Structure formats: structure tokens, C-alpha cells
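Project standup — Tuesday

K.O.: blocked on the structure for the chain from last sprint. Re-posting the sequence here as requested.
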Amino acid sequence: MAFLLMSVTVLHLVTLAMLFIATMEKSWWSWADIENTDLWYKCMFDNSTETWLCSSANESEWLQSVQALMILSVVLSSISFMVFLGQLFTMSKGGLFYLTGLCQIFAGFAAFAAVLIYTFQRKEILQDSRELEKGHFGYCYILAWVCVPLLLVSGSLYVHLRKKA
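H.V.: unblocked you, prediction finished:
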């Protein structure tokens, strides 16, 4: 049981770190490693100075909804971890981690909604950018998709996990 508890805790922390990276890093959409767009900035590589020049992303309703859902997912997963630590030290023997699991599952659904919106509305989100056919999804987008099942699995594990000692 201690191994399962430690495994779920490590899974939660790894997923939270991946979710935070996916939300904050600059690669949701890329064009041949010379231009990146994320939830917050649009960056272009300047060959003369060999630096990235970034400007704020164009605001659209779809982008704002993706931003809000990803932030909500990070916040819910963080709250879930704090609730888990609180329950771990205050809950009586045999108790279930329902609240922790539900927060984690809702974080998974929020991340799922965010990446789904970005998938289907990327033309509106990247409205004045170059041709989308020449670009591809970046690693942060893929990382966000990887977080979705991990959040849902860890949430369901928390719901079924009992405190033994």
C-alpha cells in the first residue's frame, strides 16, 4: 500500500510539472524552428542577432478559453495535491481520497477541453499567422495531450485509494 501511495504521489507531481510546462512554454505551434506560437506569445527567430523576438499573442475568444482552461487545470491539480497532503495527515484510517480524486479528474477534463479547443479552433487562434499547412503542433501541445490521461488515471486512482495507517 505504501508503494501505491508513493507511486500515485510521484505520478501526481510529474503530471503537475508537465502540465505547468505545457501551459507556460513557447511551443504549441511551430513553423520550421524559426517561429513558435504558444498560449501567451508569438516568437520569431532573428538570424542576425540569433535571439528569439517575442510579442503578445493575438487575443481571440478561443485563445482566451484555452488559456483559462489550462490555468484552471494547473490550479485544480495543485489544489488536489494540497488536499491530498491534508487528507493524508488528518483523515481517519480506511478513508477514501474522494475530494483529491475529483479535483484531479476535473483538472483532466479542463486540460482535455483546452487541447480539444486548440485542436479544432487553431485557424481562429492563429488567425494572422502564416499558412498552417507549413507548421506543426509543438511539444507543449503534445505534452498537454499526454497530461490528460495521466490526470484522469491519477484522479481515478485517488478515488479508489484507501488510507491504511
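K.O.: great, moving the ticket to review. DSSP finds five helices and five strands in the chain. The mean pLDDT is 86.
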